[in-house]
Structures are given as structure tokens and as C-alpha cells.
Amino acid sequence: MKMVGPLRHIEIIVQQLNRFSPENESVGRFLDESAKVLQASKVTDEIPVMDILCGCLEYKTVLDVVVNAFYIRDGKHCLFSDRNMYIVICYLATFRLEELGLQQFNKIIKSMDVAKICKFLRFFFNIVNLHTWIKDEWSQIYDSVYVNENWIEPLQRWQPKIQELINELDNTADKYANTTLKKTEPNEFHLTVPNPRAILIPEQIPQQEKTKPIPRNTYKPPRMKQHLERIRLKNRQKAEELLLEANINQFSCAAPKFDYKCSIIKEFPNLAEKFQAQKIKFKTDNTPVKLNAAAVLREGVLYQRKVEQELKRIEHLLQGARDPSKFLEWQKQMRGKDLDQQLTEAECRKLQGKLSYEEAILARQYCIQENQKKAGQKREE
Description:
Layout: H1 6-19, H2 27-41, H3 49-58, H4 60-72, H5 83-95, H6 97-100, H7 102-110, H8 114-124, H9 127-141, H10 144-178, H11 223-248, H12 260-267, H13 293-318, H14 325-380
């Protein structure tokens, strides 16, 4: 069977303490499970692992006083994950140091991280700390006489030897730090010297061909357009001259006065008479139409409806009602008269518009003639 070192024992105890959760499981059940784990790990009896685990749980409040104070004072920069490791060391130094012996205790301490353990042992085995606040805190949990006789005085007796162990560990740490390691001296790389690059002959840049200049007549208007513009101006001048000459050389004969009313009466002799619209003449088509079944049914329904209406009219007459046929005929005649009157008025308005238009033309001609007369008189003067 392979032997397990003291460091492995301490690691197993620390792992079990890390796994313990007092809120979720009881101490008895945890110890039973831990015993099964220790049996599977094949731990030797060189260090009583199970007893140490039980003692750490039993004196947890006492050990927490020291470890918590260590983290507050000297262990501010220590990892909190190492807390259970400090609890195990504190338990061994307080309760198991005489049982293990100094040699076995030194073996356990040297197998662990020297810097961390020396820092904790220096804090724990300080005479001032043991006789002041550690003693006072433990006395609040247990009887002060019991604490002084069983814990403080044994620790005080072991303090010189533990101090020698701490000094020894410090010296070994200093020697290890002072040993200079052989430095690696780098050698130069044997690189091949590259051949110089050949100078390339520059390529001749091809010259561009000379472009043709822009023709002068590009931005000038074409001659044909200029010629047409001159012809248009000449024609316009001729037309203006002819118009001016025609306006000056008008007919100088006297224009007789025109009676507007007589001309209107002669042109429209029947204006005072009543206007009658022509009736539209259309030919009636008496071509026989062959009716289908639907048309015959519609005709039958229409005929039956007219018969019912006639029967209702006769029934109303028998009951004393008056015949509305005369009123309807009179109403139809009056509507026809109103329509004829509206058509007559529309035609009259149309004729009046034509008359006013003719009068305006005649008045304009009369004004032109008067102006011509005045102009002729001024010339004669």
C-alpha cells in the first residue's frame, strides 16, 4: 500500500471542513460520511485524521477566535480559502502538540507552504497575544482556570521551540531566495546575408498623342440661323409699316348715321309675337315583337295591376271621393304653359344678347367714324 504523507493528511482534513455546511446537515451525519471518504482514501494511522476532524468541529468557536483575529490583524492579504488550513494548524498546536511531538509537528509544518504557516505561527505564539486578548476571549467561552492550565501554559512552554522552528524556516526561505539561478544567455542567430537586389531599368512612359483643337465655330450660332433671324426681322418691319399705312389711309367718305332700333326690328320682325317651340316629329315603329314567357308574364302582371288600380278608383268614387282626372289634366296643362313660357324667355334672352352684341359693334364703328372726322377737320385746319 502506498504511504500517504502528512501534507496529504492535512489536505484531506481541509477538504472535509470545506465541504461541511452546518445549516444543511448535522455533525454526526457529516462525520459518518467523512469516515467513509477516509476509508476510501486509505489514510494511515500515522496522523489521527478522524480525531483531528472531530476536534476541529468540537472546538470550532475557540479556533475561530484566533483565526478571525489573524485575518483582521496580520493576515489581511491572505486568501480566505486557506482559513480551514489555519484552523487545523491552530488545533494541532493547541490540543495535539504534546501527543504528536515536536518532530512530527515540524514534519507537518515543513510539508506545507512555509511563508503562510510561519506568518500564522508567529502571530499565534506571540507571548503578548497569548496572555492578553486570546486568554480573555477563550475565558468567555470556557472557565478561565481551565483555559490557563490546559491551553495557555502548554502553549507558553512550547513557544521557544516553536520560535526556533520559525527562525529555521525563515533561514531556509532566505537561502532559497538568495540562490541565484543560472541565467540563460541567448546566442545570436546565424542568418544568411541576403543578396542585393538588382536595380530595375525604368520603363519608358509612352507619350500621349496630341489632340485636335476644338473648332472655332463650336460655340458660335450657325450662319443659317442668323440669316433666318435677319429675314424674320425684315418681314416684321415690313408688316409694321403696312399696318401703319393702312391705319393712316382709311376711307374719308362720310358714313351715314345708323338707326339701331329700326335695323333690329327689320332683322327680327316677329320678336313681339309669341314664341312657339317646334314639335319634334318622329315616326312610330309598329313592327310586331315576339314576346317570350318572361315578357308575357310581365305584361300580365302590369295589366292586372292596372285593373286593380281602376277597381280601387271606382270603389273610391262610390264611397264619395272625387275624380282626380280633371285636376291632373289641368295640372298637366299648367306645367306645359310654364315650360313654354320658360322656353320663350330663354329665347328672348338669347336674342337680346345678340342685339347687344350688334349694338356694340355698331357703336364701335360709329366711334371710329367720329374720330376719323375729327382727324380730318384737324388736318384741314
